[in-house]
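Q: Sequence in, structure out?
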Amino acid sequence: MPLPSESKSRSAELVKSALKAFAAKPPDLRQIGDTDGEIEYVRRMLPGYQRTVEDVLELFDGKDDLSQLNIVELGAFLGIVSKSLSLASAKVVACDIPEFFGRPNVRTFFEGMGIQIKSFNLRTYTLPFADASQDCVIACETFEHLNFNPLPVFAEINRILKVGRYFYVAMPNGGFLLKRVRYLLSGNTPGFSVQELFGQLDANQNMVVGLHWKEYSLRQTIQMVTPIGFQVVNAKEVNDAGSEDRGFLKRAMRQIVPGGDTQVVAFKKVADFAGRFSVCADS
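A: Exactly. Output:
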Protein backbone atom coordinates (compact mmCIF):
# COMPACT_ATOMS: atom_id res chain seq x y z
CA MET A 1 0.00 0.00 0.00
CA PRO A 2 1.50 3.40 -0.95
CA LEU A 3 2.41 5.83 1.79
CA PRO A 4 -0.05 8.74 2.24
CA SER A 5 2.42 11.13 0.57
CA GLU A 6 2.67 8.80 -2.43
CA SER A 7 -1.11 8.55 -2.68
CA LYS A 8 -1.39 12.33 -2.54
CA SER A 9 1.24 12.76 -5.22
CA ARG A 10 -0.47 10.23 -7.46
CA SER A 11 -3.88 11.85 -7.06
CA ALA A 12 -2.38 15.26 -7.85
CA GLU A 13 -0.84 13.91 -11.04
CA LEU A 14 -4.11 12.27 -12.11
CA VAL A 15 -6.05 15.49 -11.54
CA LYS A 16 -3.37 17.50 -13.34
CA SER A 17 -3.68 15.20 -16.36
CA ALA A 18 -7.49 15.46 -16.24
CA LEU A 19 -7.24 19.25 -16.13
CA LYS A 20 -4.96 19.22 -19.15
CA ALA A 21 -7.44 17.10 -21.10
CA PHE A 22 -10.28 19.38 -20.02
CA ALA A 23 -8.50 22.62 -20.85
CA ALA A 24 -7.63 21.36 -24.34
CA LYS A 25 -11.28 21.64 -25.36
CA PRO A 26 -13.72 22.85 -22.67
CA PRO A 27 -17.38 22.08 -23.37
CA ASP A 28 -18.79 25.63 -23.13
CA LEU A 29 -21.41 24.07 -20.87
CA ARG A 30 -23.90 26.93 -21.01
CA GLN A 31 -23.09 27.77 -24.64
CA ILE A 32 -22.40 31.42 -23.87
CA GLY A 33 -18.75 31.50 -24.95
CA ASP A 34 -17.37 31.29 -21.42
CA THR A 35 -14.82 28.48 -21.69
CA ASP A 36 -12.23 30.66 -19.91
CA GLY A 37 -14.64 30.88 -16.98
CA GLU A 38 -15.00 27.10 -16.97
CA ILE A 39 -11.23 26.63 -16.86
CA GLU A 40 -10.91 29.14 -14.03
CA TYR A 41 -13.70 27.41 -12.09
CA VAL A 42 -11.93 24.06 -12.43
CA ARG A 43 -8.63 25.55 -11.28
CA ARG A 44 -10.29 26.97 -8.16
CA MET A 45 -11.80 23.59 -7.35
CA LEU A 46 -8.56 21.61 -7.80
CA PRO A 47 -7.92 21.09 -4.04
CA GLY A 48 -11.33 19.42 -3.67
CA TYR A 49 -10.84 17.29 -6.78
CA GLN A 50 -7.42 16.15 -5.56
CA ARG A 51 -8.77 15.32 -2.11
CA THR A 52 -11.61 13.30 -3.62
CA VAL A 53 -9.36 11.28 -5.90
CA GLU A 54 -6.87 10.70 -3.09
CA ASP A 55 -9.60 9.55 -0.69
CA VAL A 56 -11.13 7.17 -3.24
CA LEU A 57 -7.74 5.65 -4.07
CA GLU A 58 -7.13 5.08 -0.36
CA LEU A 59 -10.51 3.36 0.02
CA PHE A 60 -9.20 0.74 -2.38
CA ASP A 61 -5.82 0.49 -0.66
CA GLY A 62 -4.10 2.61 -3.28
CA LYS A 63 -4.08 -0.16 -5.88
CA ASP A 64 -2.25 0.77 -9.06
CA ASP A 65 -4.76 -1.08 -11.25
CA LEU A 66 -8.39 -0.15 -10.68
CA SER A 67 -9.55 -1.74 -13.92
CA GLN A 68 -11.85 -4.18 -12.14
CA LEU A 69 -13.74 -1.43 -10.32
CA ASN A 70 -17.03 0.15 -11.41
CA ILE A 71 -17.49 3.71 -10.18
CA VAL A 72 -20.45 6.06 -10.54
CA GLU A 73 -20.08 9.80 -10.00
CA LEU A 74 -23.33 11.63 -9.28
CA GLY A 75 -23.35 15.33 -10.08
CA ALA A 76 -20.19 14.93 -12.16
CA PHE A 77 -20.62 18.38 -13.75
CA LEU A 78 -17.40 19.08 -15.71
CA GLY A 79 -16.06 15.56 -15.15
CA ILE A 80 -12.65 16.21 -13.60
CA VAL A 81 -12.99 13.54 -10.89
CA SER A 82 -14.44 11.04 -13.36
CA LYS A 83 -11.61 11.67 -15.82
CA SER A 84 -8.97 11.41 -13.08
CA LEU A 85 -10.23 8.02 -11.89
CA SER A 86 -10.59 6.77 -15.45
CA LEU A 87 -6.91 7.64 -15.96
CA ALA A 88 -6.27 5.28 -13.04
CA SER A 89 -8.03 2.57 -15.15
CA ALA A 90 -11.34 2.50 -13.24
CA LYS A 91 -14.56 2.05 -15.20
CA VAL A 92 -16.33 5.34 -14.46
CA VAL A 93 -19.79 6.55 -15.41
CA ALA A 94 -20.32 10.31 -15.00
CA CYS A 95 -23.92 11.28 -14.20
CA ASP A 96 -25.77 14.58 -14.09
CA ILE A 97 -29.11 16.17 -14.88
CA PRO A 98 -30.54 16.32 -18.44
CA GLU A 99 -30.31 20.12 -18.41
CA PHE A 100 -26.54 19.58 -18.63
CA PHE A 101 -25.81 16.11 -19.93
CA GLY A 102 -28.65 16.15 -22.45
CA ARG A 103 -26.91 18.87 -24.46
CA PRO A 104 -25.12 17.70 -27.66
CA ASN A 105 -22.03 19.82 -26.95
CA VAL A 106 -21.69 18.25 -23.50
CA ARG A 107 -22.11 14.71 -24.85
CA THR A 108 -19.45 15.46 -27.47
CA PHE A 109 -17.12 16.82 -24.78
CA PHE A 110 -17.38 13.68 -22.63
CA GLU A 111 -16.97 11.43 -25.66
CA GLY A 112 -13.74 13.30 -26.39
CA MET A 113 -12.66 12.75 -22.78
CA GLY A 114 -13.41 9.03 -23.14
CA ILE A 115 -15.96 9.11 -20.29
CA GLN A 116 -19.30 7.31 -20.39
CA ILE A 117 -22.18 9.48 -19.21
CA LYS A 118 -25.75 8.97 -18.06
CA SER A 119 -28.32 11.74 -17.90
CA PHE A 120 -31.11 11.61 -15.31
CA ASN A 121 -32.60 13.51 -12.39
CA LEU A 122 -32.29 12.20 -8.84
CA ARG A 123 -35.83 13.49 -8.32
CA THR A 124 -37.08 10.26 -9.93
CA TYR A 125 -35.46 8.29 -7.09
CA THR A 126 -34.17 5.77 -9.64
CA LEU A 127 -30.54 5.17 -10.57
CA PRO A 128 -30.12 3.42 -13.97
CA PHE A 129 -27.74 0.73 -12.72
CA ALA A 130 -28.20 -2.93 -11.84
CA ASP A 131 -28.38 -4.23 -8.28
CA ALA A 132 -24.98 -4.69 -6.59
CA SER A 133 -23.13 -3.60 -9.72
CA GLN A 134 -20.96 -0.78 -8.39
CA ASP A 135 -17.85 -0.59 -6.23
CA CYS A 136 -18.08 3.10 -5.40
CA VAL A 137 -20.62 5.89 -5.71
CA ILE A 138 -19.22 9.42 -5.48
CA ALA A 139 -21.38 12.48 -4.83
CA CYS A 140 -19.46 15.73 -4.39
CA GLU A 141 -21.26 19.07 -4.11
CA THR A 142 -24.54 17.37 -5.04
CA PHE A 143 -26.99 16.78 -2.20
CA GLU A 144 -27.08 20.41 -1.09
CA HIS A 145 -28.70 21.20 -4.46
CA LEU A 146 -31.67 18.86 -3.91
CA ASN A 147 -34.96 20.48 -2.95
CA PHE A 148 -36.59 17.14 -2.12
CA ASN A 149 -36.17 14.34 0.42
CA PRO A 150 -32.79 12.64 -0.23
CA LEU A 151 -33.41 9.41 1.72
CA PRO A 152 -34.79 7.40 -1.23
CA VAL A 153 -31.68 8.41 -3.20
CA PHE A 154 -29.51 6.93 -0.45
CA ALA A 155 -31.59 3.75 -0.65
CA GLU A 156 -30.94 3.60 -4.40
CA ILE A 157 -27.21 4.05 -3.80
CA ASN A 158 -27.38 1.15 -1.37
CA ARG A 159 -29.15 -0.95 -4.02
CA ILE A 160 -26.55 -0.48 -6.74
CA LEU A 161 -23.52 -0.92 -4.45
CA LYS A 162 -21.94 -4.25 -3.68
CA VAL A 163 -21.82 -5.15 0.01
CA GLY A 164 -18.52 -3.98 1.45
CA ARG A 165 -18.13 -1.20 -1.12
CA TYR A 166 -18.26 2.56 -0.71
CA PHE A 167 -20.41 5.66 -0.87
CA TYR A 168 -18.28 8.82 -0.81
CA VAL A 169 -19.99 12.15 -0.21
CA ALA A 170 -18.59 15.68 0.06
CA MET A 171 -20.66 18.82 0.41
CA PRO A 172 -20.92 22.07 2.37
CA ASN A 173 -20.95 21.70 6.14
CA GLY A 174 -24.09 23.45 7.34
CA GLY A 175 -22.91 23.09 10.93
CA PHE A 176 -19.69 25.06 10.43
CA LEU A 177 -19.27 27.54 13.30
CA LEU A 178 -18.75 30.58 11.06
CA LYS A 179 -22.02 29.85 9.25
CA ARG A 180 -23.89 29.60 12.54
CA VAL A 181 -22.40 32.87 13.74
CA ARG A 182 -23.30 34.54 10.44
CA TYR A 183 -26.87 33.28 10.82
CA LEU A 184 -27.11 34.68 14.35
CA LEU A 185 -25.76 38.07 13.30
CA SER A 186 -27.51 38.50 9.95
CA GLY A 187 -30.59 36.27 10.15
CA ASN A 188 -29.68 34.76 6.76
CA THR A 189 -29.78 30.97 6.72
CA PRO A 190 -27.01 28.99 4.97
CA GLY A 191 -27.77 27.95 1.41
CA PHE A 192 -28.56 30.85 -0.88
CA SER A 193 -29.23 34.56 -0.86
CA VAL A 194 -32.39 36.22 -2.11
CA GLN A 195 -30.25 37.79 -4.85
CA GLU A 196 -29.33 34.28 -6.05
CA LEU A 197 -33.03 33.42 -6.36
CA PHE A 198 -33.38 36.26 -8.84
CA GLY A 199 -30.17 35.19 -10.55
CA GLN A 200 -31.46 31.70 -11.17
CA LEU A 201 -34.30 33.14 -13.26
CA ASP A 202 -32.10 35.60 -15.16
CA ALA A 203 -31.58 34.50 -18.77
CA ASN A 204 -28.21 36.25 -18.85
CA GLN A 205 -26.93 34.10 -15.97
CA ASN A 206 -28.55 30.82 -17.04
CA MET A 207 -27.87 29.26 -13.62
CA VAL A 208 -29.52 25.83 -13.47
CA VAL A 209 -28.46 24.28 -10.16
CA GLY A 210 -26.42 26.96 -8.48
CA LEU A 211 -28.60 27.18 -5.36
CA HIS A 212 -27.92 25.25 -2.16
CA TRP A 213 -31.45 24.42 -1.08
CA LYS A 214 -30.33 22.58 2.05
CA GLU A 215 -26.95 22.40 3.75
CA TYR A 216 -26.64 19.57 6.26
CA SER A 217 -24.33 19.30 9.24
CA LEU A 218 -21.88 16.41 9.37
CA ARG A 219 -23.95 14.82 12.13
CA GLN A 220 -27.13 15.05 10.05
CA THR A 221 -25.43 13.42 7.06
CA ILE A 222 -24.36 10.46 9.18
CA GLN A 223 -27.82 10.23 10.77
CA MET A 224 -29.44 10.10 7.32
CA VAL A 225 -27.17 7.56 5.66
CA THR A 226 -26.21 5.02 8.34
CA PRO A 227 -29.76 3.64 8.92
CA ILE A 228 -29.90 2.71 5.21
CA GLY A 229 -27.36 -0.11 5.45
CA PHE A 230 -24.14 1.89 5.79
CA GLN A 231 -21.44 2.43 8.37
CA VAL A 232 -18.96 5.31 8.56
CA VAL A 233 -15.43 4.55 7.39
CA ASN A 234 -14.12 8.09 7.69
CA ALA A 235 -15.66 11.48 8.42
CA LYS A 236 -13.92 14.83 8.42
CA GLU A 237 -14.42 18.58 8.09
CA VAL A 238 -12.05 20.42 5.75
CA ASN A 239 -11.46 23.79 4.09
CA ASP A 240 -10.31 23.10 0.58
CA ALA A 241 -13.05 23.34 -2.07
CA GLY A 242 -12.76 26.68 -3.84
CA SER A 243 -10.35 27.97 -1.18
CA GLU A 244 -7.95 29.65 -3.61
CA ASP A 245 -10.46 32.35 -4.61
CA ARG A 246 -10.96 33.58 -1.04
CA GLY A 247 -9.30 36.65 0.36
CA PHE A 248 -6.55 36.40 2.96
CA LEU A 249 -8.83 37.25 5.88
CA LYS A 250 -11.41 34.60 4.93
CA ARG A 251 -8.71 31.97 4.53
CA ALA A 252 -7.17 32.93 7.86
CA MET A 253 -10.51 32.77 9.67
CA ARG A 254 -11.14 29.27 8.33
CA GLN A 255 -7.80 28.15 9.69
CA ILE A 256 -8.52 29.60 13.13
CA VAL A 257 -12.14 28.52 13.59
CA PRO A 258 -12.61 24.83 14.55
CA GLY A 259 -14.09 22.48 11.97
CA GLY A 260 -14.41 23.28 8.30
CA ASP A 261 -16.92 24.57 5.78
CA THR A 262 -16.81 21.32 3.79
CA GLN A 263 -17.77 17.88 5.12
CA VAL A 264 -16.42 14.63 3.71
CA VAL A 265 -17.77 11.21 4.66
CA ALA A 266 -16.88 7.78 3.33
CA PHE A 267 -19.50 5.13 4.05
CA LYS A 268 -19.26 1.38 3.56
CA LYS A 269 -22.31 -0.65 2.60
CA VAL A 270 -22.69 -3.33 5.26
CA ALA A 271 -26.16 -4.64 4.38
CA ASP A 272 -28.91 -4.33 1.80
CA PHE A 273 -31.55 -1.80 2.81
CA ALA A 274 -34.56 -3.82 3.94
CA GLY A 275 -36.90 -0.88 4.48
CA ARG A 276 -39.40 0.68 2.11
CA PHE A 277 -40.10 4.36 1.65
CA SER A 278 -43.55 5.66 0.78
CA VAL A 279 -42.62 8.12 -1.95
CA CYS A 280 -45.16 10.58 -3.33
CA ALA A 281 -45.06 13.73 -5.42
CA ASP A 282 -44.58 15.86 -2.31
CA SER A 283 -41.71 13.81 -0.80
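The chain has a mean pLDDT of 88.
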